[in-house]
Amino acid sequence: MFSGDGYLATISIPQRVMHIQSEPYEEELTCMSIFRNDSELAVDSSEGNFHIFNSGEFEYCSDAFTGPKAGVNKIVPIGEQIAVIRCEDGFLLAMTKSSRGWRRWTR
Fold first, then answer.
1. Strands (DSSP E) found in the chain
2. φ/ψ (deg, to 5) at 40
3. pLDDT of 6-46, one tens digit each?
């Protein structure tokens, strides 16, 4: 997977071919991590928005929500439904998945 210039793409390095490219986004996609047994991909943007993609369906995001105001440096999955996020302001945040999607933040 590769992200840059406002889109996400999956490429095959040995074959040198792009498989799928996402819809273009106005913001730069900055940080990503794989969740839930490799079935979801969380991507942060330079505008503080999170986009969730389902595995193999990278054309359009399946969920989107506003993340923390500070930029995100790293997303680390902990278990099936929890992620720890390191922000540029030095705080660690926990993101959990509820029945409505990835929306809960705890400082």
1. 2-4, 7-12, 17-21, 29-35, 40-45, 49-54, 63-66, 72-78, 82-87, 92-98, 101-106
2. -135, 145
3. 667 777 788 887 767 777 778 888 888 887 677 888 888 88
